[in-house]
Design brief:
There is one protein chain. This protein is an alpha/beta fold. Helix content is 58%, strand content 12%. Strand 5, helix 11 and strand 6 (310-314) form a beta-alpha-beta unit. Helix 3 runs antiparallel to helix 4 (93-105) and helix 7 (175-188) packs parallel to helix 8 (203-216). The structure holds guanosine-5'-triphosphate and magnesium ion. Magnesium ion binds at residues 175-176, 199, 205, 251.
Length: 363
């Protein structure tokens, strides 16, 4: 009997010890969980703060982003492929051939790359043949070739006659987004801006433009899906004249039933835009930098059909081939006026050749 009592007492003691250990473990687990959720909460708070900082920064003062900050991919690719060519005490013919290849890889184009390297070699002949001189000669040559264009966006200054900036280009290049960015920029500078939803090819196009109109406090004129794009642009010009607005930014469709139809449609839009009170002062071809030489072939069709006054080169932020800027200007003979460096409303930079070359070669 005594033995049974001792065993029962030991069992009870063991039970108490196990129960105490279990309670301790649960408490620890709960405190870990609580600590964990606090950490998650803090992290979430930090993320929200960061987002709020970013958002308020963008809204309060969009600022102009720098090319240097956004050309990382193009810079890494170009500098990476030039480095082996120029990493030697004196630059031989072989090294210059490697430089030509690096430029071609960067989308500068075959003929233009050779011309640039010939001219850079001629510069170096008079200034020493070290890598630093070669690099300086190359940059000077690029600057020289890109320079000498008027990149301003023309406006007619007399009241009651709005200036029309017409945006053309194949679908997906960034026409509507660029219009949104420019609407904000020009409104911020005090212009009265009207957006013309001339892309009536698909219903969502006008909705996308309406979203940008709201973000930039611009007025929008739109028609029904399938409406005549020229008549929508005409109505927008008349609406701008009536409200004494300075600028009409006219969106167009990037596709039509055939590319011939598209070009004919754009010619009609351009004609009709000037039938009333407006005058087309810019026809801006929007090109996607990441499409390289293919994009250039399409671009030729546009420059032949409508009098293109400037190029907006979009998505340069995602491109590893910055040389497309050189090809566009050399082969189309039209200045790059603006560069898109992101999807945000402030991600549009006026093109400047010195800043561009510096950004492309910065160490
Ligand atoms: N990274 C980056 N994306 C851009 C830039 N510009 C436009 N995009 C994006 O490219 C896509 C197409 O832009 P849209 O403005 O709709 O192009 P669109 O020329 O109007 O196209 P369609 O209306 O189909 O003819 C969108 O996802 C944009 O956010 C840019 O500079 N950089
Ligand atoms: Mg569009």
């Amino acid at each position: 009997m005594a033995l049974v009592l001792v065993i029962a007492a030991v069992a009870a003691l063991l039970l108490v010890v196990v129960a105490a250990a279990w309670v301790r473990r649960r408490r620890t687990a709960r405190s870990v969980l609580r600590g964990g959720s606090t950490a998650v909460g803090e992290l979430a708070d930090r993320v929200v703060d960061r987002v709020a900082e970013g958002a308020s920064g963008a809204v309060a003062e969009p600022g102009v982003p720098s090319l240097r900050d956004h050309l990382g991919r193009a810079r890494a690719a170009l500098v990476g492929s030039l480095a082996p060519a120029l990493d030697r005490p004196s630059i031989s013919q072989d090294a210059w051939t490697a430089v030509t290849e690096a430029l071609i890889r960067a989308d500068v184009g075959l003929a233009t790359s050779s011309e640039i390297v010939d001219a850079a070699m001629a510069r170096v002949e008079t200034g020493g043949d070290g890598p630093a001189q070669a690099m300086a000669a190359l940059q000077a040559e690029l600057r020289g070739r890109l320079g000498g264009f008027d990149r301003s966006l023309a406006r007619r200054s007399d009241g009651g006659h709005p200036s029309v900036w017409l945006f053309v280009g194949v679908n997906g290049t960034g026409k509507t987004t660029t219009i949104g960015k420019l609407a904000r920029r020009e409104s911020d500078r005090g212009a009265g801006v009207v957006l013309a939803a001339g892309d009536t090819f698909r219903a969502a196009a006008a909705d996308q433009l309406a979203m940008w109109a709201e973000r930039s406090s611009a007025h929008i004129v739109r028609g029904a899906e399938g409406a005549d794009p020229a008549s929508v642009v005409f109505d927008a010009v008349e609406s701008a004249a009536a409200r004494d607005a300075d600028l009409v930014l006219a969106d167009t469709a990037g596709r039509f039933h055939t590319s011939q139809n598209l070009m004919a449609e754009l010619q009609k839009v351009r004609r009709v835009a000037e039938k009333g009170s407006g005058v087309v002062t810019e026809t801006l071809l929007v090109l996607d930098a990441t499409t390289g030489q293919n994009g250039l072939a399409q671009a030729r069709q546009f420059t032949e059909a409508v009098d293109v006054t400037g190029v907006v080169l979009t998505k340069l932020d995602g491109s590893a081939k910055g040389g497309i800027v050189v090809s566009v200007q050399t082969e189309l003979g039209v200045p790059v006026k603006l560069v898109g460096v992101g999807e945000g409303i402030a991600d549009l930079v006026p093109f400047d050749e010195s800043e561009f070359v510096d950004a492309l070669f910065a160490q």
